[in-house]
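Quick one, T. Sequence first:
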Amino acid sequence: MNIQWYPGHMTKAKRMMQEDIKLIDIVIELLDARAPKSSRNPDIDTLANGKSRLVLLNKQDLADQSVNQKWSEYFKGKGILCHAVDARRNQDMKPVMQLIEQACKEKTERDRARGILNRPIRAMIVGIPNVGKSTFINSFAKKACTKVGNKPGVTKGKQWIRLSKNVELLDTPGILWPKFEDPEVGLHLAMIGSVNDDVVELYALALHLIEFLQKNDCNTLAERYNIDVTGEAPYILEQIALARSCLKKGGEADVDKAAKLLLDDFRSGRLGRISLESPETEQSE
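Structure tokens:
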């Protein structure tokens, strides 16, 4: 299954970000902790060239904790500050301000040497759709600054938000890139809900998720649905349908309904903390 999704408004958003980058001191890149490789827009490295950088692994509570730590070390090894967060938890926001100031320390000292005092750090937050930027901003600012939704594409324009006396934040729409060269990237983005479900065959996507879980964490499906997980993916999805009473008239298993249920359980964390990617697979490629 080759998944591609690049709505027209993303071209406009990317152009807008390119125009605004000259105003920015630091680029804060929000990634999905379950798939940090796939949720990294390759265009951001070019956009943020010459700027201070901070990577935040959001939805860390949905990903394997030990893998989160490995990803943090991976990015730090590349000279990029990195921190895992759950944007819904205010306590996870406390270290972020310190990291922003740390990343911009040299620039702040240069400003002071030139007699520029009390100018706030200007940050741009970037990320793919549905990675949690709006939730992060509202939690960080401790007030409802942006519209929040659990589907991609809620933020369509830009807005400046004063986070504190020291930091101003430019919010930007979630953008993808025109083509996913690696089909696995499209699959992972669809699994975490960063690609619109309307352009995805959910049945096929659920089968891919089952195969991944069979290979990496078989007990997850067995414990959640109390089913036999030794068969092939279509059989297992049928078992999930029967176990969860996803039935058509006559008692036949409704596998399409079961596919949506399985994906919802994964995306919400009801299947447990699952990482789709690890630095080891990234480094071996």
